[in-house]
Structure formats: C-alpha cells, structure tokens
Design a protein that fits this description.
Blueprint: E1 14-17, H1 21-32, E2 37-39, E3 46-50, H2 54-64, E4 73-75, H3 79-83, H4 90-99, E5 104-109, E6 126-130, H5 135-144, E7 148-149, H6 164-171, E8 177-180, E9 191-196, E10 199-204, H7 210-217, E11 246-248, E12 258-262, E13 275-277, H8 284-298, E14 305-308, H9 317-328
Parallel strand pairs: 1-8, 2-8, 4-6, 5-9, 11-14, 12-13, 12-14
Antiparallel strand pairs: 2-3, 3-7, 4-7, 5-6, 9-10
Helix pairs in contact: 1-5
The structure holds threonylcarbamoyladenylate and magnesium ion (MG).
Length: about 325
C-alpha cells in the first residue's frame, strides 16, 4: 500500500532480486545519488543510505517517521573501515576481532573528522558501528565504498521487517528500492554494547547472546537501568516494537478473542483461535527467526489481543523477551 505523507517524497519503490548481479550495482548507484535502499542483513532488513550524505540521512528519517534524536547505526565492510571513524578501546577490539562480521554493534567515541555526519549520530560524540555478515549487505557496502547508515527497515514504532514483504508493507512509496534476498536468517536485531571510558555496557540485548560477549571479555556486562524516558540507546524507548493489538505476556491459556503466540506447544489447539508457534520444538534460534513475521501475521484487524506463551530467558531468549516486553508496553498515543 502506498502512503502519501506530508514531507515525505513519493518514490517508485523497485524490488531488486539480490541474486541478480546487476542489482547490487544498481542499489549502490541509487545510494551514491542520495537514495534509500532496503538491504538484507543477517538480523533484520536495514534501510540503507550514504552515512556521509546529510540530505540522504534527512530523507531516511522522514521515510521511517523516525525522531531525529534517535541515532543510526553505521555499517562497514570491515573492522578496519569502522576504526577509521571511531576510537576502539581494548575491549572493543577484542569484541570486534571475535564477533565481526556478525550481529554485534559497538558504540564508541567518534574520531576527529568522522565522516558519519552529526544528523546520523543525532548530535552525539559517539557512533554505533556494525560490520554485518550477510553477503548481500557486505557486497552493497563494498560497492558503495562508504559507511551505510541503516536503521531497521520499518516505520518508526513498528516491529522490524525480516522479509521483503514486511518492508514493502511499511515503506512502499517512501524508498527507492529493496534488495530482496528472502528471509533474514537470525530475525532479531544486533546486540548493542557501548565501549566507552567507563567500560563495556549492554545497551540492547540482541542476536548475539550476552553469555558469548561476557565469555569474550572475561567479565559480567553491566546493563544500565532504562529509565523509560532517557534510555542509553535512545531508540530503546519502552514501547517501541509495537503491533496494533494489545500484547499479553507469560500467558498460560488464551482468553476469548485473543490470538496466540505460542512457544513449544503450550496452548494446544485452543478452539480455533489463530495460533502461531514460534518453535514447536522449543528452539530459541527458530523462535527468533519467526518472531517479527509471526507478530505481524497475528496483528490482524479483529484480533483483540495477542497472548504470548512464556519463553525461556537464556541465550537468544533475552532479546526475544526484550522485544516482546516492548511490544506489550503502554505506548504513547
Ligand atoms: O541488527 C541491527 O542492528 C539492525 C540492522 C539493520 O543492522 N539495525 C537496527 O537499527 O536495529 P535501529 O536503528 O533500528 O536500532 C539502532 C539502535 C537504536 O536504538 C539507537 O538508539 C541505537 O541503536 N544507537 C545508535 N547510535 C547510538 C549511540 N551513539 N549511542 C547509543 N545508542 C545508539
Ligand atoms: Mg529499529
């Protein structure tokens, strides 16, 4: 569905099949001209723009309807390229060496002359850096030859898109193209760790499990208290990944009118209510991969609410429970 909105340029959104060699070159050309292209990553689809082009970044915020106080992650082809823009501490180096390319975002102080502009950073003197492992994202970043700012490719406040159809449902008519590479393998966003002068802190649980990071650093990660209004990852506002329907967590059974987001078969058949099981066999990786598409599928008109079965908190479960808690939080009108 195309949506006209004040202040958002209407664009003809093309779907470029990622398997086609010409698609990457075309997507890179569009980005170098200041355009917006949704790209697959191993976590979720990102809406990519040239991070060094302030006009492109302004258009990106407008297309998503994203508040400009919420900074963007800069995506690089290599740790070396990322280090050109920001100062990595010893801890950051250790994490980068172990987990890049992969679903880890490191927040670090910018270097003087950082090419990622103030708008993309929301005026901060720190920069969120990520080196994705998805081959299409990597080819696109290499073809552009500049850092790509890429927030999740959804309208602000909606759940992230893990398939090209999700991106089209949110952004058709607002962006120039989407590189369609099918479903994203992991399905939840990267883990964000701040590596600043006061040591490493977990800003957002995500696709890389806390235990793996703690194991690499040889210490427990501090988790800053999120005060709701001024979280440390500014996008981590309490209600963020919100479907339209009310979300009820840790449900043991379904109430009348509710759809069910199940895990490991707890709800059974429940008398014909729509139910999606994130993983009938209780596998957290499978559950993460299915999370956002299942929330979107259950969030249909006429569904009074979505009941969510309990999901274990370890490993990827921390990120899954974090996203579900945000989906269930009271949201601003
Ligand atoms: O997996 C991912 O990280 C995906 C893919 C596309 O790479 N991207 C993603 O971007 O989730 P986004 O914009 O939806 O979320 C980025 C988060 C936001 O909560 C933002 O506030 C936080 O990163 N962030 C960005 N720069 C920051 C900084 N300098 N300090 C603290 N938080 C920052
Ligand atoms: Mg997002």
């Amino acid at each position: 569905m195309k949506v006209k909105a004040p202040g958002v340029a209407e664009r003809d959104t093309r779907v470029l099949p990622a398997g086609d060699a010409a698609s990457i070159a075309e997507a890179a050309r569009v980005i170098l001209q200041g355009g917006l292209v949704a790209m697959p990553t191993e976590t979720v689809y990102g809406l990519a723009a040239d991070a060094t082009n302030a006009r492109a970044i302004a258009a990106l915020y407008a297309a998503k309807g994203r508040p400009q106080f919420n900074p963007l992650i800069a995506h690089f082809a290599s740790a070396l390229a990322a280090e050109g823009e920001a100062e990595l501490t010893a801890d950051a180096h250790r994490l980068a060496a172990r987990f890049w390319p992969g679903p880890l975002t490191i927040v670090a102080p910018v270097k003087p002359g950082c090419r990622v502009g103030l708008l993309a950073r929301s005026g901060l003197e720190t920069l969120a850096l990520r080196v994705p492992s998805h081959p299409i994202a990597r080819q696109l970043i290499a073809a552009v030859g500049r850092p790509l700012a890429a927030p999740s490719a959804n309208r602000s406040g909606r759940v992230s898109g893990t398939r090209a159809e999700h991106v089209m449902a949110d952004l058709d008519g607002r962006i120039d193209a989407i590189l369609d590479a099918g479903p994203c393998p992991i399905g939840v966003e990267s883990t964000i760790v701040a590596c600043l002068a006061d040591g490493p802190r977990l800003l957002r649980p995500g696709a890389l499990a806390r235990a793996d990071i703690e194991d690499c650093l040889g210490m427990a990660l501090r988790t800053p208290a999120v005060s709701g209004k001024t979280p440390l990852a500014p996008g981590a506002l309490a209600s963020h990944y919100a479907p339209q329907a009310r979300v009820r967590l840790n449900a043991q059974t379904l109430r009348p009118g509710e759809a069910g987001l199940d895990f490991a078969g707890r709800f059974g058949r429940a008398g014909g209510a729509p139910i999606i099981d994130l993983s009938p066999g209780g596998d957290l990786h499978e559950a993460a991969a299915n999370l956002f598409s299942s929330l979107r599928a259950l969030d249909a008109p006429g569904v009074a609410g979505i009941a969510v079965a309990p999901i274990p908190a370890q490993g990827l479960g921390e990120a899954i429970n974090d996203r579900l808690a945000r989906a269930a939080a009271d949201r601003p009108i």
